[in-house]
Amino acid sequence: MNGATLMLNLILAISLISNLAIVGEAGPPASYDKPDSAREGTAVEDRAASDFERGEYLPIQYRGDLVKNWKKAGLRKPDTGFEWVKVAQLAFLINPTSGFIRDIVELED
Q1: Which is it for the CA torsion 55, 59, 62, 67, positive or negative?
Q2: CB atoms within 10 A of CB 89
Q3: Nearest to 98 by CA among 81, 79, 86, 80
Q4: pLDDT, tens digit, 9 for 90 and up, residues 31-73
């Protein structure tokens, strides 16, 4: 392998690694965990849990009630890297680090 081929392989490897970081799910906007930094009228604390939809980020104040027995709750097995959390009568399938909402299910009594 000559020097030019080696350099090309190195550039391709660095490019690939850089792109992998971009492909992952982005974290939530700063305002979701810091309501004071949000614009007036859009603060997270003004939103009820039922206002959040798939593809949004569940704020940290709603992430505390982990559903450990998802079968008993009538929920499907959580995807890898996700957990079910209960908020009122809703179960959110979220990434516990970012709060990214993958699914929402209304729970029965």
Answers
A1: positive
A2: 12
A3: 81
A4: 455 545 444 455 555 788 888 999 999 998 888 889 999 999 9
